[in-house]
Structure formats: structure tokens, C-alpha cells
Specification:
Elements lengths: L17 E12 L8 E12 L3 E5 L6 H8 L7 E6 L2 E2 L5 H11 E5 L10 H11 L4 H14 L15 H12 L6 E5 L7 H18 L2 E6 L2 H4 L4 E6 L2 E7 L5
Parallel strand pairs: 3-8, 3-9, 6-7, 7-8
Antiparallel strand pairs: 1-2, 1-4, 4-5, 9-10
Helix pairs in contact: 3-4, 3-5, 4-5, 5-6
Length: 249
């Protein structure tokens, strides 16, 4: 005989192993008829496990940045679904998407996007101040993150007093302030020379190990992509190849 269970008796949910799930994702840009729309993604299915380090590679216009924007809940698919940590982001309102981004995702961009009038400490602390976190907590976490990215001695410096590599490491520290489960990086070494780029990725790997993050990096540089467990090759809006690397945690 079938019986209804009370909420307390229901079987606990199984933890979500995949933090990112894309199913048959299509993305069009442009208004009007389908003939007028520009189709950037043509039905992408992809799963990223919790704690994995993945790179997405492709030529300019391949759809790799669009793919990252959908994973980052900065946009919605035209068709298909995007789930983040078990939540179907495709069905959420703008406010709900913003809440999901704040609670689950940290972003790092090629252009750093730092506030020039603020010190390194203040750039990292700002989002926690907006979220009304306790002052002692803000200070402790900001100091710890700056130390983790090698900027403990640069806390009072403003962005224009930092090198390109230091700016990007500061941007990484800022992205981690709300303890996201997922770190997304869009061409994070694009404005850096090879030495600074390698240094930044070294810190990313260190944080990945220490913080238990899931990391997804969009890059066109083979050397940067090889820091990941897997390289997702994107061509003409489709995944053309998934390549396993020799990288270990």
C-alpha cells in the first residue's frame, strides 16, 4: 500500500556530484525570425564534477565565452537547461539569478575590474561590507585571502601601484570573498606576459587545492589550459573534443 510521508520522513537528498550540468544548450542572439538570429551555441551538453579543474578552449567566436556566461548565470539559454549545484538556473528570475551568482559563483575577468580608488584590502573587503558581514570576519577573511595570493604586504596599495600579475591575483582574492563553490575565469592571463600568467595560474592551483573549489577557465592559450584536469575544446558553437590532461591535484 502506498503511504504519504511527512517532510521529516522523506529520504534525504543525495548530494549533487556535478556542480555544473548543461543539457542541449542552444544560445541565439538577435531579434526577429530564426533566420535573423545569430546562433552561437548549437546544443551543448556538459557536466563538471564538484572539485574539478576544467579549461574551455576555442578560437575567437567559437562560443567559449558565451558558454562561460551561461554557466555563470550572466545570461540564459535560448533552449536547453543550465543547472548550478542542483538548481536549474534556466527557470530563475533576474533577482534569483543574482542571488545564485552571489552565493555560488566567483568571477575573474581579463580586465581585472578593480576599483582604482580603493586599496587592495578595500577591494577585497567591499562585497562583504555590502553583504553586512561582521567587521572582525571581514578583516580576518580579507587578510587571509590576500596572504593566500601573495599580497599580504600589499594590502594598502591601490591597483595602479600593482603589477599586472598582482592585479589579477587581487581580482582572484576578491572573487573568493563570499566563499563560492565555483570559480569562473575568463581569459585571466590575457593581459599578462607569460611569466606573470604562469605565476597567476600557480596561485589558482594553490587556492583550488586549499579551498576545494571547482574552477573553470576560458583561455586560448594551450599552456594555461593544461593546468586543468580536462580541456573542453569548443568549435563553431559545439564541443569538438574533451581532452584529459596529466594534471593531478
Amino acid at each position: 500500500m502506498k503511504t504519504d510521508k511527512t517532510p521529516a520522513e522523506k529520504t534525504p537528498k543525495t548530494p549533487v556530484k556535478a556542480i555544473v550540468e548543461l543539457r542541449d544548450v542552444v544560445k541565439d542572439y538577435g531579434a526577429g525570425s530564426e533566420a535573423e538570429a545569430l546562433r552561437v551555441l548549437h546544443g551543448v551538453t556538459l557536466s563538471v564534477a564538484r572539485g574539478e579543474f576544467v579549461s574551455i578552449m576555442g578560437a575567437s567566436g567559437s562560443g567559449k565565452s558565451t558558454l562561460l556566461h551561461l554557466i555563470g548565470c550572466l545570461d540564459k539559454p535560448t533552449q536547453g537547461s543550465v543547472s548550478i549545484d542542483g538548481v536549474n538556473a534556466s527557470t530563475l528570475s533576474s533577482d534569483e539569478l543574482a542571488e545564485l551568482r552571489t552565493s555560488k559563483i566567483g568571477f575573474v575577468f581579463q580586465a581585472f575590474n578593480l576599483l582604482p580608488a580603493l586599496t587592495a584590502f578595500q577591494n577585497v573587503e567591499l562585497s562583504m561590507t555590502i553583504a553586512e558581514k561582521d567587521k572582525a570576519f571581514r578583516r580576518e577573511r580579507t587578510e587571509r585571502l590576500l596572504k593566500q595570493v601573495g599580497l599580504g604586504e600589499r594590502a594598502t596599495h591601490r591597483p595602479n601601484e600593482l603589477s599586472g600579475g598582482e592585479k589579477q591575483r587581487l581580482a582572484i582574492a576578491r572573487a573568493l570573498t563570499n566563499e563560492p563553490a565555483l570559480l569562473l575565469m575568463d581569459e585571466p592571463t590575457g593581459n599578462l606576459d607569460s611569466r606573470a600568467g604562469a605565476e597567476v595560474m600557480g596561485f589558482v592551483r594553490k587556492l583550488w587545492r586549499e579551498e576545494g573549489l571547482t574552477v573553470i577557465v576560458v583561455t586560448h592559450e594551450r599552456g594555461i589550459a593544461e593546468h586543468a584536469h580536462r580541456i573542453i575544446h569548443v568549435k563553431d558553437g559545439l564541443i569538438s573534443e574533451i581532452e584529459k590532461t596529466k594534471t593531478k591535484r
